[in-house]
Amino acid sequence: MADETLWLPSLVLALHRNRHAPYSRFVQMATIRADGRPANRTIVFRGFFDDSPRLTFVSDARSPKVHELERSPWCELCWYFPVTHEQFRISGPTVVVGQNSDDVSLEARRKIWCQLAEPVRVSFTWPAPGNPRDGRVPFPSIHPDQETPVSHFCLLILDPQEVDLLELNGNPQHRWIFHREGPDHWQGTEVNP
Amino acid sequence: MADETLWLPSLVLALHRNRHAPYSRFVQMATIRADGRPANRTIVFRGFFDDSPRLTFVSDARSPKVHELERSPWCELCWYFPVTHEQFRISGPTVVVGQNSDDVSLEARRKIWCQLAEPVRVSFTWPAPGNPRDGRVPFPSIHPDQETPVSHFCLLILDPQEVDLLELNGNPQHRWIFHREGPDHWQGTEVNP
Fold first, then answer.
1. Domain spanning A7-127+141-191 has what CATH number?
2. Domain chopping of chain A, boundaries
3. Could you write out the DSSP letters of every residue in A127-162?
4. Measured between beta carbons, which residues in chain B are less than 8 angstroms from residue A73?
5. pTM of the entire structure?
């Protein structure tokens, strides 16, 4: 597998082979807080962007991760597949596409909004995440337009630059590190696990 | 649950209720690389330290995460429990206990070494993780002494200072943030999910 761009078909295959585990699309995303400390949370993979290796996620603009990515775009995903025992660590810069973005990604933002499950769209109408909650006040039950994203809905697009793939099956395990060296050029090396 | 230190019994309960999922002890640990970018990988929880809320993990001293923690001790765990749908984000400074440490943790390091499964102990005799692998050369099959840790075996001890607990069951979900305000004093607040 070394010296090729085989991390992407490996990831596609892992998504297929783990498709019955609902949390196989749950990924941990590490970012840098304003104070320089790391933040880490689970986020749901929403598919590849435009038939490219870029990965999409969604977020509320009021969430700290959006501010962290706008300040320090480079993040690292850790994606563990429980059925096939594979770990992908994927790092690269992430672009935040909000309502004021003016490039082609705005249409992708709208498309992904339309495809979200209804309860996820509703959750974007709730009060700001992380603010103190008043348990006596029920959350509003607003059903936003399915075609028009709410203003603070953001699409996140991560452009992978480095991938560390660990296959835990086997003794010793197998591990490869892939670096992107050009627009369509990757270099891969098998390394010790 | 607000205003109490209930994250710890919640975590103990989650470990119990998810005990049949082998990967319920797999945690994603985010650290800071020397270049300021985040790193994120899966690591296995090895139990609480000395009946305290401190969490233990093990690592090879030759692994980048040890150097990252020695340089920037503050890390953040993301721990997702698939059976009960709970996420714990736990952050705080992490101490690396290697063979030259001179405090009481050395005995804990030895104990955890003794308790490891044999294949895990053997893996510490392999060539340095992350170095290029020569597929033609089999890894050594050395069985290290069960009582005496190899020199580069490290114990990691994380001392939680902040915990963000999200219960995904329920609509809306429930979320609390706990801050440590003294040796045995925590403050908790329910926040919007």
1. 2.30.110.10
2. 7-127+141-191
3. SPTTSB--TTSPPP-----SSS--TTEEEEEE---E
4. none
5. 0.96
